[in-house]
Amino acid sequence: MAQQHPDPTDPTAGAVTGEALAGYLRAQATAFLRALRLHRETGSTLANSSQESVDGPRALRRAARRISGSLHTFRPLLDPGWSEEMRPELAWLSGTLGLEHAYEARLERLLLALHRLSGTTVIPAQTSDRAAAPGRPAGMTRAPATTAPADSSGPTAPKSTPERGNLTVGAAKAGALLERQLTLARTRAHSTALQALGSSRFHAVADRVAVLASEVPLTPAAPTTDLGPLAAAAEERLTDAVAALPLVTAGHPYNAEALVHGLAPDLSAHPQDGPWHQVRLLLRLHRYAREVLTGDEAPADVRLVTASQALNRHRDASEAAAAAAQAARTPRITPATAYALGVLHADQRHEVEAARFAFQQAWQKQTVNAP
Amino acid sequence: MAQQHPDPTDPTAGAVTGEALAGYLRAQATAFLRALRLHRETGSTLANSSQESVDGPRALRRAARRISGSLHTFRPLLDPGWSEEMRPELAWLSGTLGLEHAYEARLERLLLALHRLSGTTVIPAQTSDRAAAPGRPAGMTRAPATTAPADSSGPTAPKSTPERGNLTVGAAKAGALLERQLTLARTRAHSTALQALGSSRFHAVADRVAVLASEVPLTPAAPTTDLGPLAAAAEERLTDAVAALPLVTAGHPYNAEALVHGLAPDLSAHPQDGPWHQVRLLLRLHRYAREVLTGDEAPADVRLVTASQALNRHRDASEAAAAAAQAARTPRITPATAYALGVLHADQRHEVEAARFAFQQAWQKQTVNAP
């Protein structure tokens, strides 16, 4: 771990107390309200608008996640009734607001993969964090590449999805099918999010956050309570969950583990992914707890960031693989379409495996270099 | 390289001359004739018989490959007319005799993969060199495994192919389709091989090999000519071909290179595999040349063996992937069958990538440790 900040497990360091938690929560609440104002001023919603207004809902979710995470990790220091009412509302909000972007990123990921699998290279738009290129060394594509120009309209515009001109019939049909299904899902998510933002439920959340921006409901003892033990407990939950992961397997390249259930009866169920998703959430809570203690939102430890990115990629590939498997169950598709979806599913499951390998590598480095 | 044998590139070592080549060729010719006698005595042919008689044709091919390879590498030391007539005949023979086994091993590989992809584990029979398990660390399968008992009738009996009881409909149908197509191909290969063994062309080859067993047509200067430079040239051809491989890419796990053309218009063409197949052949020639120089058929260098095995696995997975893609073009298959074949194709292409990684690892070790 980087040592420029107090180490939460070091009892000799000057203790960071509940006051810091209050400061962090106030700051996040303020960020939430700023994002809400930005969103309302630009008058647009969510992901299918210009890049600037995207930042509104994204910043809203970002702050909601941090508030919610801090409420969880530092629960004993906060008014329990308030905290228990607040958390599910914040989870509902960030879940609802995140869906549209998730469907969009999933479609982009799948269409990019179809192009890669067809030997055509599309330069992925770089601004979308979920749709980032899947972490291969740059310049390694040796295939005779028909490089499509990068679309300058931004990754969130529907028209920025790669064209299917160079695909085979099966790949093109698979792409069209996925586009239809995921665009429909995204449109529904958009409507749901719009309704959510106009709902009395949302206004109640926003009101509570507005109060939080000035007045954090700490317990009487909290202002002088050391945050260290609670932050350490969050880290321990993470460490325990990581220890339960099959990291030895994941560290062997090409272990073929992620596709073991690729043709299992329930195509979209991958129970093996669950523990990794869980670690993703615990790692996020650990990072937020570190932010509270250091008072700094800039990532303190590049390895934690790398590990987080690997787990995000794991989640994205897992969901994309499930979407391909789901699309293959559409009635009356042609065998060529189904074949392309099978290749695509397997490709994304290998992305899952690659992400686990990347996490293992990042985590190993971290453990080796820890004090 | 292991140093217990003379280093062919070391000018100070006692030179190995054409006499050693003659001895090697006589020994291989004798092995050829012994295999032929064994095959005729057991009265059975090729791969679909009991384990003992399998060794006949396999030993026949083994000797034929070594004679042919030595004729190529040490061509200047042998009567050119004889040599140029002999080589294509030996290539025809080992190609014809190898096909049946290749189809059988391919089917076994694909059915094992279908089981793995369905979350059921089948213990592969261990005696078949081409059908060996694809090199994962043992005991790593964490899936809830329905382990079928290993079939004791040997890997070459058609009934030893795994049962399809636990597969999904799509996987089962894909397996049945592949079994039908590859069994047909194998039956044809069997007939062709039987015809070949009864042909006058084969008898002419056998007669020539019988002569070779006692009388090697060396050039007049050959008995005192150092074999070193010709063996070194064979090694150099190998080294040059390896240097042209994309080993940097191959050394990055999960580079996703092997599937780049997974959905390209011509499904079964993978031009990127060609250079690797070529290296496989050159590596074999290099190994045979070492055998001639050391007078020892036992593998002198475990890393050369590891590299060879990786390239065999590369070839097998490449051909299996092509067979899955080919099967997916069968008219009137169901989408579920096509989907399973797509997953299977992608899985085998990742096996191709895994084999390249394994070769890169083996080769790197070799280069690092070479004097």
Automatic annotation (TrEMBL), chains A, B:
Leader sequence residues: none
SMART domains per UniProt: CHAD
Matches recorded under InterPro entries: CHAD_dom (IPR007899), CHAD_dom_sf (IPR038186)
Region entry Disordered, spans: 126-166
Composition bias, Polar residues: 149-159
Domain CHAD: 14-368
Protein's recorded name: CHAD domain-containing protein
Organism annotation: Streptomyces pluripotens
